[in-house]
Amino acid sequence: MPKAVVIGGGVGGLTAGVALRRKGWDVTVLERAPHLAPVGSGLAIAPNALKALDALDLGDRIRELGRFEGQAGIRRPDGRRLVHTTEDDALARYGDSMVVMSRAALMDVLADALGGAHLRPGITVSDVDAAGGVVRTGEGDLEADLVVAADGIHSATRRALFPRHPGPVYSGVTAWRALIPRSDLPIQSTESWGKGLVFGVHLLAGDTGKAGDAEDTVYVYATDVSPAGAVHADEREELLRRFGDWHEPIPSLLRAADPAKIIRNDIFSFGTPLPALHCGRVAFAGDAAHPMTPNLGQGACQAIEDAVVLACVAGGSSAVEDVLPAYTAARLDRTWRIVRQSMTINRLTRLRHPLAVRLRDLGMSTAARLSPDLMLRSMDDVLGWRPPAATGRSDAPSIPSDG
């Protein structure tokens, strides 16, 4: 039985472990933290990632938690709608909608599918021998036919194996995320854009949707142009200062937020792609391979895609040096296109000059009136992806014709 060592117990690492086990690999997932503690509060599982999870027989478990319902789109700070789409439109176009869920819930599903015997928390990796497939840790060396580097945006494995690559660069914005009790607030999924500011609101999957239900939880996120490394004494007050006069339910949600549970971090992204997504016996996945801004909601989705494609390419063969170039061929161009597309949207959200903002908003609303399906159609390349088992290709969208 071929052996794989996965470095990192995040979404990409756990999914890779599950996918490789499905192909008959003996898998060990190493996580530096003493226990799985998901960073971040919420994430979106889009149709492309749901199809990838279907290949692991996990898609329906995620769908059972709930799915996006109603309308979604982009609004102005006063609530005026610029572009929108509906769950029915997404279902018709991609055969799936979107699940917005807590990162912890997704991690639970993946960890359960992996099996506790294959997860080793509290292990720090000190070095990787890419040619020999040796992972060195404080508790001894592990030999593997395949090493999966899923060790995050500041991947030590990536720095060691690609020392000339410049690494992630600051995107120009900082981000806040939080999970907030819904109380009796009416919630509709939306993302609102202002002058350099973004605020998103989504009811989490798994909630009943009934007003007053104590289990109702809303996932919110916000971004603003900011110098890297800025520190605020009270992050909720900072958010209220920026968004307190925006349309409801944004101010009410912020007033209900627990300041201690608001997460803030600067957003980094690749400005230059890696020369390859493999080196020797090492394959890179997720943020270690292609960190991106969150503007397309594809960070976790692309990590899931990586894992499924990698397992498909690896199959049951231990001769990974011969097959990993096919992984790079399947994933490098696609993920780099998505990194660039996400950064393009990031630049649009960073506009601050009043005239530039008015022109941006006018352009979006006009385009949406002329082409009502614009919001979805612009995402065909991303959301229409199907896993190799479904199409024989990992880059072939399956999109209905506009006719």
Automatic annotation (TrEMBL):
GO molecular function annotation: FAD binding; monooxygenase activity
Stretches assigned to the FAD-binding domain: 4-161, 277-342
Keywords associated with the record: Monooxygenase, Oxidoreductase
InterPro entries: FAD-bd (IPR002938), FAD-dep_Monooxygenase_BioMet (IPR050493), FAD/NAD-bd_sf (IPR036188)
Gene3D superfamilies xref list: FAD/NAD(P)-binding domain
PANTHER family, per the entry: MONOOXYGENASE (PTHR13789), PUTATIVE (AFU_ORTHOLOGUE AFUA_6G14510)-RELATED (PTHR13789:SF309)
Protein name in UniProt: FAD-binding protein
Organism the protein comes from: Nonomuraea deserti
